[in-house]
C-alpha cells in the first residue's frame, strides 16, 4: 500500500513508514493529535525546502516541539492556520525560504491565546478547526511585524516591541495601526526608545516587557511610545563605588598631577 506524504510530497509504501522508527512514531503521534492533525501537517510543510524532502526525524522533532507549547489546542490550531496562511502569502511574493524555528508561530499564538474561541463554530465538529474564519488583517499585521524583526536578525529591542504589538493586535485595541503601516509604527517606537537610551538588553528588555503588561491593564486604546516609556520600571541601582581614599593615596594623586604640569 503506497502513501503520499502531505509534508514532503514523496511516495512510499506503508510498510516503509512502519519499518522506519521515526516514521512510525511520527504517524502515531500525528494520529493521536485529533483536531490538531490537519493544522500540524500543513504547518510542517512550511519547514520543507523547495528542493529537499523533510526527514521523518526532523518532522517528529517539530511535532513534539509544537505539542509542548503551553496553549489551548483550539487556539494552537487557529495559530497554525494563520501562520500557514501568512507564510503562503509570503511565498507567493517570491520568498520561499523554509521556516527554521517556531518564532513565527509563537508570535501569532500570542494574538489568539487571549481571544476566546468562536461560539459560532459547532462543538461537534472538531475537525472543522482548519476551516475557521480567521482575521486576515491580524495575520497580515503579524506577518509584517515578524518580517520587520527578521531584518536585523531578531535583535532584542525589536523582539520586545514586536511581542508587545502582537498582544495589542490580539486585543483589537481602538486606534490600532493598519497592517500596511504597523512596521512604520514599530520603527517609530524603536527610534523613540533608542533616543531615550533604552538600549541595554540585559536590563531594559525586562523593563519593556513589564511596561507592556502595565499598558494592557491600564489602557483601552492603542498607546503612544511615551505611554510605554512612562510605565518603564526604574533601572536597578548600581553598586556605588567607594570614594574613600587614604591620605597616602591622596598624596600620590597630587604628586601625579604635579609631575604632569612640569
Commentary on this structure:
It is a single chain. Helices cover 57% and strands 2% of the residues. The radius of gyration is 26 Å and the shape is elongated. The protein has helices spanning 14-19, 21-31, 37-44, 56-67, 73-92, 103-112, 136-150, 156-170, 182-195, 201-218, 225-230, 247-261; strands spanning 2-4, 11-13. Residues 115-135 have low confidence and may be disordered. A hairpin with a 6-residue loop joins β1 (2-4) and β2 (11-13). The protein has 12 helices and 2 strands, in the order ββαααααααααααα. It is mainly α and 262 residues long. Strands 1-2 form a two-stranded antiparallel ribbon.
Question: Helix-strand pattern, N to C?
Answer: EEHHHHHHHHHHHH
**Coarse shape:** elongated
Number of strands: 2
- Largest beta-sheet characterization: 2 strands, antiparallel
Secondary-structure map:
Layout: E1 2-4, E2 11-13, H1 14-19, H2 21-31, H3 37-44, H4 56-67, H5 73-92, H6 103-112, H7 136-150, H8 156-170, H9 182-195, H10 201-218, H11 225-230, H12 247-261
Considering the chains and any ligands shown, give keywords for the structure.
262 residues; mainly alpha; 2% strand
Summarize it.
The chain has 262 residues and is mainly alpha-helical.
